[in-house]
Backbone:
């Protein structure tokens, strides 16, 4: 009960926050991307946290989603809402294709194979000019603003869509974690041979997880395309700014927990923006350097993620409340 | 009625013939002991039965269905599972979750939880259900292994040294449990080094040596078989005479 009140309170604050920011300003943009990256990290957390398969190739699905919905608008005038599901479908197919050969790989080998897959997708998008426009990128065409056309004058609706997306993927994550599938994933993570012997189809469970994560990541790609309006292969298929960043957000926040990716995104995205804001006028690359130093410091301080800070605060709070 | 029928199972690892032409069959409801010196192939044989290791040749029929070449989860679904000699629990999960996960083979989460508590009660570990499995003592973990295997609802249960490091009282409890599982209609194959325990509970004993089945008979027959005595204890018996 208490837990539900806390969750509702957080959602209420998150729902009011966008209204307090200037609707055309810089910070509403930062907030939108923070929410979007939190959702992306949560989707990564399904495979990275629950199945313990550190994917460094999630940009592959993200880019597929961004390109699918945008190409469908450009070529056929199909609403991005429908394009989002088409992208989700293709993202799921791509996840299945990459999961079948890589599933038996563990740890570093899985990470490297997925990283390579993301890079392959980036190269394909750069080369297949007739479909993707190549390195020049694509612009989402301007259509008269309406909800049905997924077109808005301001960023405010985008912030709310990102918030709703974050809530949905967090509910999905938590539902999987508590379901039979969650138990099976924990068993596979801790001892795959024992998991098989007690009747878990480890291959099937891993494939299901990969596909769910791929579908959702691709759908978030559409959200990104609609906010960014313009993108190219090097942005949406980026190993550093998509694949590694979503993994970093989830790991820094607390991998395998529902709150972790949210805490991670709330820290990383705004701090990164702030560093750019403060130091970009100084020496080139200074903001990146300072951001890197902050990340290292945080990881040394809390190797198991921000979730540990959150947990100890909650413990202190509830012990005070009792006494 | 035969529940497990093993014919000509062989398996080679490089230059080592780990199993060689192992043949026997087990009627439903027997407790069968599997003994043999270290390295005789007992654990390899269990792993082959549940599908973790694929035999080079031979057939295995579980309740009339061939299980050779099937994946372990399929074999478990058909009704045969094993415990791990070195204990392979999900250490970061609670004892209850370890056992519950096995119950998911045949039940939904809520029913599996109830089944898991029943299984834990049977091995006498209900009181530590919410502890982390990794924090238990070794003998306790071996019993969680047993509860977890039991919770898959097996027809044939393979127990790989679940009595290791138990004190006499605990050992007696496990022996009673094995008998009661037999009374429930479960067929058990038991690998154990504790000779007195195995001679007491088993209806029948198989002796494995260098991957070969050396003897197959009642505990008395096996204990008095000169070939077995020689293989198991070496020739030192004569040296002492």
Residues:
């Amino acid at each position: 009960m208490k837990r539900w009140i806390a969750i509702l309170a957080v959602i209420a604050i998150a729902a009011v926050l966008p209204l307090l920011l200037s609707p055309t300003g810089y910070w509403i943009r930062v907030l939108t991307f923070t929410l979007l990256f939190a959702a992306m990290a949560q989707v990564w957390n399904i495979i990275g946290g629950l199945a313990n398969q550190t994917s460094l190739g999630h940009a592959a699905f993200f880019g597929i989603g961004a390109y699918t919905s945008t190409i469908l608008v450009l070529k056929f005038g199909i609403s991005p809402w429908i394009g989002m599901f088409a992208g989700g479908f293709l993202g799921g197919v791509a996840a299945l294709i990459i999961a079948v050969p890589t599933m038996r790989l563990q740890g570093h080998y899985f990470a490297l194979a997925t990283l390579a897959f993301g890079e392959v997708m980036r190269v394909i998008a750069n080369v297949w000019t007739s479909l993707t426009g190549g390195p020049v990128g694509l612009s989402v065409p301007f259509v008269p603003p309406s909800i049905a056309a997924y077109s808005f004058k301001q960023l405010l609706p985008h912030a709310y869509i990102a918030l709703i997306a974050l809530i949905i993927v967090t509910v999905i994550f938590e539902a999987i974690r508590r379901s039979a599938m969650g138990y099976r994933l924990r068993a596979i993570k801790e001892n795959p041979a024992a998991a098989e012997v007690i009747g878990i189809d480890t291959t099937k469970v891993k494939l299901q997880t990969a596909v769910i994560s791929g579908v959702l990541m691709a759908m978030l790609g559409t959200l990104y395309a609609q906010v960014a309006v313009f993108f190219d292969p090097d942005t949406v298929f980026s190993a550093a700014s998509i694949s590694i960043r979503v993994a970093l957000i989830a790991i820094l926040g607390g991998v395998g927990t529902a709150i972790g990716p949210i805490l991670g995104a709330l820290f990383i995205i705004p701090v990164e923006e702030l560093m750019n804001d403060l130091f970009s006028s100084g020496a080139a690359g200074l903001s990146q350097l300072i951001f890197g130093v902050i990340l290292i410091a945080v990881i040394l301080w809390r190797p198991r993620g921000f979730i540990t800070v959150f947990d100890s605060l909650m413990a202190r709070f509830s012990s005070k409340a009792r006494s | 009625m035969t529940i497990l029928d093993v014919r000509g199972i062989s398996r080679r690892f490089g230059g080592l013939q780990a199993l060689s032409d192992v043949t026997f069959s087990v009627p439903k409801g027997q407790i069968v002991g599997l003994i043999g010196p270290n390295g005789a192939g007992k654990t390899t044989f269990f792993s082959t039965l549940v599908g973790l290791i694929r035999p080079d040749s031979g057939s295995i029929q579980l309740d009339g269905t061939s299980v050779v070449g099937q994946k372990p989860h399929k074999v478990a679904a058909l009704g045969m599972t094993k415990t791990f000699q070195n204990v392979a629990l999900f250490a970061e999960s609670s004892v209850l979750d370890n056992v519950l996960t096995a119950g998911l083979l045949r039940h939904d989460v809520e029913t599996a939880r109830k089944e898991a508590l029943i299984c834990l009660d049977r091995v006498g570990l209900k009181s530590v259900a919410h502890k982390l499995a990794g924090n238990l003592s070794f003998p306790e973990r071996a019993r969680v292994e047993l509860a977890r295997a039991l919770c898959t609802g097996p027809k044939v249960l393979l127990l790989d040294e679940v009595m290791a490091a138990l004190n006499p009282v605990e050992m007696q409890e496990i022996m009673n449990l094995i008998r009661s599982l037999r009374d429930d209609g479960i067929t058990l194959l038991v690998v154990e080094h504790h000779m007195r325990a195995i001679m007491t509970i088993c209806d029948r004993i198989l002796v494995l040596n260098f991957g070969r089945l050396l003897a197959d008979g009642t505990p008395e027959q096996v204990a008095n078989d000169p070939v077995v005595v020689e293989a198991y204890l070496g020739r030192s018996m004569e040296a002492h005479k």
Remarks:
- Residues 237-241 of chain B have pLDDT under 50 and may be disordered.
